[in-house]
Amino acid sequence: MACVLLFGRLLPFSHRLRGTSICLLSLFLSYLFYCALFPDGAIMQTSGDPTPSCQRADGAKRRLQKSLSCLLPSDARLSAVEASRLKADQRPHFAHHTAGNGTPSPPMSNLKFGNKKLPNAIIVGVKKGGTRAVLEFIRIHPDVRAAGTETHFFDRNYDRGLDWYRGLMPRTLESQITMEKTPSYFVTKETPHRIYTMSQDTKLIVVVRDPVTRAISDYTQTLSKTPDLPSFQDLAFRNQSLGIVDMSWNAIRIGLYALHLENWLRYFPLAQIHFVSGERLITDPAGEMARVQDFLGLKRIVTDKHFYFNRTKGFPCLKKPESSGSPRCLGKSKGRTHVQIDRDAIEQLRDFYRPYNVKFYEMVGHDFKWE
Ligand SMILES: *[C@@H]1O[C@H](CO)[C@@H](O)[C@H](O)[C@H]1NC(C)=O
Ligand SMILES: *[C@@H]1O[C@H](CO)[C@@H](O)[C@H](O)[C@H]1NC(C)=O
């Protein structure tokens, strides 16, 4: 029954696709795949989702993928990648994980149709600190599921409301933690209060890194997209010979961790905020991830056996990437030609940040040992 209806839905899409024979063949194969995946007709369960994802995405490149994802009502959808990932990946984890505490493994049907929940934990910052790496590392854990993209809900999209936000989250089982990461939250004034309004129990993770290297990394990234950018020095200083730093430049402002943190501590106790060292994430990823798992109340499942150190690259990589075939490493952009910043400018910036860093160490009770 479901398969017949599905086939009916398929036909209109075929008109839109170029290279029709190939597309029709792949659509037909996917139709067979979905029918095999959802033999009980669950695929046709009603959606009731107010934002049909079929109309959101565009771009001819993704048309085939889009039309396939539209086949499944968005509320009951599980991408083929996710489905196979759950089969190939989560299940053994569950078996492994539940062996300890004796609760039975949930049946596959639960995995298909969990609920979307607002996040329990959010990686709120900072840009160029290593937030993507922390998210990729923590989502190896079978009890964590995360939104794939940065939602920017609490800064840019707050007007869309919590239901919209929830809609971006992956389906989870009762026992699983929902997470997202948007690095700009940490430096956005309104965000702490807004997250507090959603839930005052939200756990917050901040990946921090030496503000000088962070600023240079930030600038390097912007430069790669905007080649005619003024020089780093021109942007960082209002008057370099006088050593006057331009604190309004975002690349500088983001590194004033103590100032931003004050804003968060008006709403959240320090114990509810976990700081990951961006530097130690590189030298000891398993150690940093152990602390993250402890903070989230998770069993330590992500350990050093998930990482290997690539000596050529000088960075740790994940042994078993979640969704791609190639290894996932920190320092992806290390191949980028780094901008040469003169020694004097770096020294001036170190002097500038030092008091803020010291204040930050005192606030969080940890010395990150930035120069
Ligand atoms: C920086 O300050 C010095 C000393 O006051 C002044 O001579 C110079 O013109 C200033 N440079 C700029 C770019 O404003
Ligand atoms: C290590 O990194 C280098 C340089 O990026 C890369 O060419 C190589 O394939 C990597 N080796 C492994 C085992 O990941």
From TrEMBL:
<keyword id="KW-0472">Membrane</keyword>
<keyword id="KW-0808">Transferase</keyword>
<feature type="binding site">
    <location>
        <begin position="334"/>
        <end position="338"/>
    </location>
    <ligand>
        <name>3'-phosphoadenylyl sulfate</name>
    </ligand>
</feature>
<feature type="binding site">
    <location>
        <begin position="128"/>
        <end position="132"/>
    </location>
    <ligand>
        <name>3'-phosphoadenylyl sulfate</name>
    </ligand>
</feature>
<dbReference type="GO" id="GO:0008467">
    <property type="term" value="F:[heparan sulfate]-glucosamine 3-sulfotransferase activity"/>
</dbReference>
<feature type="active site" description="For sulfotransferase activity">
    <location>
        <position position="128"/>
    </location>
</feature>
<dbReference type="GO" id="GO:0000139">
    <property type="term" value="C:Golgi membrane"/>
</dbReference>
<comment type="similarity">
    <text>Belongs to the sulfotransferase 1 family.</text>
</comment>
<keyword id="KW-0333">Golgi apparatus</keyword>
<protein>
    <recommendedName>
        <fullName>Sulfotransferase</fullName>
        <ecNumber>2.8.2.-</ecNumber>
    </recommendedName>
</protein>
<feature type="domain" description="Sulfotransferase">
    <location>
        <begin position="120"/>
        <end position="354"/>
    </location>
</feature>
<feature type="disulfide bond">
    <location>
        <begin position="317"/>
        <end position="329"/>
    </location>
</feature>
<keyword id="KW-0812">Transmembrane</keyword>
<keyword id="KW-1015">Disulfide bond</keyword>
<dbReference type="InterPro" id="IPR000863">
    <property type="entry name" value="Sulfotransferase_dom"/>
</dbReference>
<keyword id="KW-0325">Glycoprotein</keyword>
<dbReference type="InterPro" id="IPR037359">
    <property type="entry name" value="NST/OST"/>
</dbReference>
<feature type="transmembrane region" description="Helical">
    <location>
        <begin position="21"/>
        <end position="39"/>
    </location>
</feature>
<feature type="binding site">
    <location>
        <position position="217"/>
    </location>
    <ligand>
        <name>3'-phosphoadenylyl sulfate</name>
    </ligand>
</feature>
<dbReference type="InterPro" id="IPR027417">
    <property type="entry name" value="P-loop_NTPase"/>
</dbReference>
<feature type="binding site">
    <location>
        <position position="209"/>
    </location>
    <ligand>
        <name>3'-phosphoadenylyl sulfate</name>
    </ligand>
</feature>
<dbReference type="Pfam" id="PF00685">
    <property type="entry name" value="Sulfotransfer_1"/>
</dbReference>
<keyword id="KW-1133">Transmembrane helix</keyword>
<keyword id="KW-0735">Signal-anchor</keyword>
